[in-house]
Every structure is written in C-alpha cells, then in structure tokens.
Specification:
globular; alpha+beta; binds glycine; seven-stranded antiparallel β-sheet; 23 strands; about 575 residues; about 35% helix
Length: about 575
C-alpha cells in the first residue's frame, strides 16, 4: 500500500495564496507582516486539527454518519500517529462536549496522574536542589497516561459509530505509513540527541541512526499493532498486554509507573467552568487545568473596556491585555493545583467583583513589574534569565451536522514527551510530571512557577494550561477554540476569542492575527515578530514593557458560527493543520 500524502505545507498554502485574504504590511522601520488565512466554510459540519491527515480522518467519520465525538476521537488518534512529537497514546488531555439539543457543556479530564510512589521530593537531589532534567527527560518524567481511557470514555458516552471504526484510520496510517512533513522532520532533527538515548525511540525516528527527513515515509508497525489491540479492547492499555509492556519498560529504565498505576487510572467527568462575557457564555476547562479559570479571570478584568472602539491592537488595548495577563499568571502560580488534592479558590478568581477590585491596580500608562503585581524575591527572578520556550501539544475542534461540538486539547507535554518510546508498543511517553512545581519557584519547561498547591503527590494531577473552550450565545454554539503552546495557551485562546467576539473577525483572521503574551514571570512581554508596527512597539516600550520579539507561537484552531449559521473554520498559519467542512 502506498504511504499517505497530505495536501501541502502552510508555506506552500501561502504561496498558492488562494487562501490568503490579506497581506498587511505595517510601518517601515520594523517590517511587520500579518497574513490572514481564508477560513474553510460549510453549512454542514467542520473538522479542524493540526495535521491534514488527522482532519481527513475526522471528516471521514462525519461522512459516515458519525457525530462530533466520533470525528474528534478519530482525529485525536490520527494525531498520535502523524504528529508524534505533540500528543499521543502516551499522554493525556481535556475535552469539552457541547450537546446542541440540551445546550449543555460537559468536560472530561483525561490528564496524566502521578504514579503511586511519586512524592514531593521526587525531583530533588540529596542537597534538596531541584533536578529539572529528571522531570523532563526519561522514564522518571512520565505520568500515568490518560489518552486511551479518555477517548474511550468520551466515545462510550456520546459517540455513535462503532469504536473499532473510529480507531481504524489511525491504525491504517501507522501501518501503511505517511510522508514526513517539514515540521515533523524538523522536530525529529531538533530532538535527535534525546531520542538517540532511547533505543525504541531511535528505532522509530532515527532509522539507520539518522533523523527521518522530510519526504521520507514513516511507518510505525508497533504503534499500528497497539492501535489494533485498542480497537478490540481499549482496556488492554491499562490491564492487558500493553499495560504489561509499559510497566516492564518502566522497570527496566528506572521509571515509576506499575501495572497497578495503570489499572487504577480513571478519567474524570467534571463540570466545565462557565461565566459571562458580555452577551456570551464562555465555557472552558476547570482545574486541574488553569486554562478556564484564568481565561474567565482575564475576560472579567477586561470587563466593559471598549476594545473595539480603541481599534484592534491599539497600544492602549495591548497594554491592558499585558497587565491583565500578569495578574492572572501571578494568581496561577500561587493558587492553582489539582482540586482533588488542594482547595482552589475558583469562585473568587472568576468572580467579576474580584476582577473589578484588581482592575484598579492597572496603570494605563505604565507597565508594572512582577514584584508590584505580586512580590517575588530577586533570586527567583534571576532564575528566569535563561527561560526557554517549548511549544508542543495539539488542539482539535469538530462541529457536526446537529451543531454538537467537541473542543479537545491533548498532549505529551514537551516535544516527544520524555523522549522515550515504551519498547514494543510504539507509544511515545509523556513528560507531564514537569508540569508539577517540582520545587517552590522552580520554573517548569514553560517558565511557569508554582508552589504548594501544585507540588507532586501520589495520584495527583499536574496543573495544566490547556484551554479547550466553547462559547455559547443564547445557549447555541457561537465558537469553539483551543491551542497548544504550554503557558501561552490561555492568552492565545483569550486573544482569538476577543478577535471574534469584540473585533468581529472570522475564524481565519482570528487565528492568524499576531499575538502577545505575558505570564508575570519572566518579566517580558512577548510580541510576535513582524506582527506589530514601529509606532505600536514604541508606545509599548514607552510604558515600560520589556519586549521580547519571537517567531509565532501556538498552533490554534477554531470554528466560528456566523450570523447566518454558516460555519467558518481555520487552522493556524503557524502550523501545518487544515480545516475541512462538509458539503
Ligand atoms: N503540558 C502543558 C500543559 O498542560 O499546560
């Protein structure tokens, strides 16, 4: 059988230019360019994901009469095959489901959990010093994976097609192979040193000792077999042969996960966190993700400020966003953790009255330092000097013919997770343990700090920033959105929501538009290179923002319902994804 091809890379999409509706060039001192992608349109249904083959897998389910859950599960499993650096069977995530008939939104937490023998000091050396490399690389970094249990639970409750049918496309992709894209090739090359440390990972991604190149075919026979077993009996991952293989691999390599940990794994149905923003209801993921809490908190802090009257990306509006972001991320570091283990003051954090009080702190003409927003000692600040970014994770959005919707973000955390594949299974294992605060004020992979609330404990879930979100208007779907990008996820989702609800953009413009990001620490306002004109940059610097120009981050996708009921969907130009609408 020939390997599967996908349509084209984002750059070739740009050069074909049929999909680009605006190429905006601002200013002359700093060249600033923003390309806005034309969204896919459909009156029927829509799938958007980070990879064309994954979008095709989900769309095939809708064409076969499946609903949004069937489409989302097939898409997510396909991502595990074609985007093995971002998410997969060895990871976990969160999903929101909107049932159009009842207007209800349900949330599913299938995030990884700490193994039973993981304790608070797991990543400290004998002198009590944090050892971040242990929470990021190798078997000790792996949390108990939730993907298979989560996707199966979602499908059992809401899916319509047979389970084996939704697993089929990914199994075929793994066994038949697919053509390696530029993005996948660059991720493999960029992580080749880590992957070479693990025989099973090297066998998949570094055949003959060399990184797979763009245009070569990646066949994953172990993963195909694993998917075949899961198609017949998903619990095999937790109690059968797959569980045995994972536990044996852990034991052989100093990992903690046992068969008992796998058997104990349960996804958790949670009430989504919902709150008003103007005439809309915003529903997102509650703890153990911080995404929903801080998305609502930031929207509350923006409140009635007339961003539309200021104009899109006016320096006043950008300054307000940056100051709002700092407050939210300062609270995150202090208060957020697994609600099954610690008291999270959710009601206070999303209370509009709390936002009203804290909004008073914001000075319209001056950027406040992290110490002013929340005291932080100089030693802590010093540790942030060398903060490095890592983008990963994946998001997918599906709306079916009945306007049911799934918004799902899932991950193996860092690129290629812990950098290890469980021998004999083809499963890339996560390094989600790094999302715990391994020691107070020690930044994780994304530069985020935390304290007691997010310390390691047996069975506990590490705090996340994933923000799968569904927006309702009069109980009807208005938009569904999400993104990868670690700490930047919440601010990416915030800006896309504002682009649609305040600035009236369609899905294509909303996900394409240049972004900013502030996370309180480090003390820099990240600003997308080529996205902002010199005058705007000067105006932000004049207020005291320490700007850090970065290439684009995140890989968002969104589906928006227009006033005439038409769906528009778009995958981020910053990735290689694609939106596909039904006819
Ligand atoms: N692993 C990134 C997150 O969950 O936020």
């Amino acid at each position: 059988m020939p390997p599967l091809l996908f349509r084209c890379s984002p750059l070739s999409r740009l050069s074909r230019s049929a999909s680009v509706i605006g190429l905006l060039v601002f200013g002359s001192v700093t060249p600033a360019v923003a390309a806005f992608i034309q969204p896919a349109r459909s009156d029927r249904d829509m799938v958007v994901s980070a990879h064309p083959l994954a979008t095709a897998a989900g769309s095939a389910m809708l064409r076969q009469g499946g609903n949004a859950v069937d489409g989302a599960v097939a898409t997510a499993l396909a991502i595990a095959v074609v985007e093995p650096f971002s998410a997969g069977l060895g990871g976990g995530g969160f999903a929101l489901w909107h049932e159009s008939e009842s207007g209800e939104v349900t949330a599913l937490d299938f995030r990884e959990r700490a193994p039973a023998t993981a304790g608070r000091d797991l990543y400290l050396n004998a002198a009590g010093e944090p050892q971040s490399q242990l929470s990021r690389n190798g078997h000790l970094a792996v949390g108990v994976p939730g993907t298979v249990a989560g996707l199966y639970a979602l499908h059992q409750r809401y899916g319509e097609l047979p389970w084996a049918r939704v697993v089929q496309p990914s199994r075929v992709m793994a066994s038949q192979g697919f053509v390696v894209s530029d993005l996948l090739a660059s991720e493999i090359a960029g992580n080749a040193e880590r992957l070479a440390q693990n025989l099973a990972a090297a066998a998949v991604f570094l055949p003959d000792g060399k990184p797979l190149q763009a245009g070569e075919v990646l066949r994953q026979s172990d993963l195909a077999q694993t998917l075949g077993q899961i198609a017949v009996e998903p619990q095999d991952f937790y109690e059968g042969e797959i569980a045995k293989a994972i536990a044996a691999d852990m034991q052989a390599n100093g990992g903690l996960i046992t068969q008992a940990d796998l058997k104990a794994y349960q996804p958790i149905w949670r009430d989504p966190i919902c709150g008003p923003f103007r005439q809309y209801e915003i529903c997102s993921m509650p703890p153990p993700s911080s995404g929903g809490v801080h998305l609502l908190q930031m929207l509350n802090l923006i409140g009635d400020t007339d961003l539309a009257a200021q104009g899109w990306h006016h320096p006043n509006g950008l300054h307000l966003l940056a100051e709002v972001m700092k407050i939210a991320y300062a609270d995150r570091a202090e208060h957020l953790g697994d609600p099954d283990f610690v008291e999270v003051p959710i009601a206070a954090l999303v209370n509009p009255a709390y936002a009203d009080a804290r909004r008073q702190e914001i000075e319209p003409q001056r950027a406040r330092s992290a110490e002013e927003v929340k005291a932080s000692d100089t030693e802590t600040l010093e540790r942030y000097r060398n903060f490095k970014e890592s983008n990963d994770t994946t998001h997918l959005t599906v709306v079916d013919r009945d306007r049911n919707a799934v918004s799902m973000t899932y991950t193996i955390n860092g690129r290629f997770g812990a950098g290890v594949v469980a021998a004999g299974t083809g499963i890339v294992l996560n390094n989600e343990m790094d999302d715990f605060a391994i020691a107070p004020d020690t930044p994780n992979l994304f530069g985020l700090v935390g304290g007691e609330a997010n310390s390691v404990a047996p069975g506990k879930t590490p705090l996340s920033s994933m923000t799968p979100t569904i927006v309702l208007e009069d109980s009807q779907l208005r938009m569904a959105v999400g993104s990868p990008g670690g700490s930047t996820i919440i601010t990416t989702v915030l800006q896309i929501i504002l682009n649609v609800l305040v600035h009236d953009m369609d899905a294509g413009a909303a996900v394409s538009a240049p972004r900013i990001h502030h996370q309180w620490l480090p003390e820099t306002l990240r600003i997308e290179q080529y996205g902002f004109d010199r005058l705007t940059v000067d105006a932000l610097e004049a207020r005291g923002h320490q700007l850090q120009f970065r290439r684009g981050w995140g890989n968002a996708n969104a589906i928006v319902v227009g006033p005439n009921g038409e769906l528009t969907g778009a995958a981020d130009l910053r990735g290689e994804g694609i939106a596909q609408g039904g006819r």
